[in-house]
UniProtKB/TrEMBL annotation:
InterPro entries named among the record's database cross-references: Ran_GTPase-activating (IPR051553), RCC1/BLIP-II (IPR009091), Reg_chr_condens (IPR000408)
The protein's name: RCC2 protein
Record lineage: Eukaryota, Sar, Alveolata, Dinophyceae, Suessiales
Coiled-coil stretches noted in the UniProt entry, renumbered to this chain: none
Superkingdom of the source species: Eukaryota
PANTHER family from the UniProt entry: REGULATOR OF CHROMOSOME CONDENSATION
RCC repeat copies, ranges: 34-89, 90-153
PROSITE patterns: RCC1_3
Signal peptide location: none
């Protein structure tokens, strides 16, 4: 898909693109001013994070404002049909499809009706409001139906479908019973803790989650 119609920034505005993340049928970009733009297909999942009334508006990059207007975003990640954003103060926001609990928002359960599994605006990830230093995120990432982050203390948290493989060992609970809020991974390899700083970031795939040290 060709990126079009993103307005050029005035010379003194310095609104340059610093990161782009891509999902199955949607994309998000981050400017150096901490502003998010999205475009692509919104379908029933709300992964654009903004209201779109027709296909033409979906395909044109437009800012995501609702729920995150006062935040300065420093990192973004896209799953198949969801997004996660990290703010300057260490808070996490998520939106899109929550079928596997990959948004990590409060109040989700396996009994949630399918019609209520889409969150169409950035919503705080439970526990990561950026208020306690122990739960301030350093980086974030997404798998197809999973999310993860590393805290400033070097702890790795995961939620969504990845928890079925990492925490349940495919035995402790059923396939649909994923962790729907962030859960800390214990006993990470010592080589990830050079200088006691812990891993810098983590990558998520369908069934595994490698961490990268400093």
């Amino acid at each position: 898909m060709t990126l079009r119609s993103l307005p050029a920034a005035p010379p003194d505005n310095h609104a340059f693109v610093v990161q782009v993340a891509v999902g199955k049928a949607h994309s998000v970009l981050l400017t150096d001013e901490g502003v998010l733009y999205s475009w692509g297909t919104n379908n029933e999942f709300g992964q654009l994070g903004r209201a779109c009334h027709n296909q033409d508006k979906m395909l044109k990059p437009a800012p995501i404002i609702g729920g995150i207007k006062q935040e300065i975003v420093i990192q973004i990640a896209c799953g198949m049909n969801h997004c996660v954003a990290l703010t300057q103060r260490g808070a996490l926001f998520a939106w899109g499809n929550n079928k596997a609990g990959q948004l990590g928002v409060d109040g989700f359960s396996a009994e949630t009706p399918t019609s209520e599994l889409a969150i169409t605006a950035p919503t705080p990830v439970k526990h990561f409001e950026g208020q306690e230093i122990s739960l301030c995120a350093r980086s974030c990432s997404c798998g197809p139906e999973s999310s993860a982050c590393v805290t400033v203390r070097g702890e790795v948290y995961v939620w969504g479908a990845i928890s079925y493989y990492m925490l349940g060992a495919q035995k402790k609970y059923g396939k649909g019973e994923n962790c729907t809020v962030p859960v800390c991974i214990k006993n990470l390899p010592k080589e990830l803790y050079a200088h006691d700083s812990g891993p810098e970031q983590v990558s998520v795939y369908k069934d595994h989650c490698p961490a990268i040290g400093r």
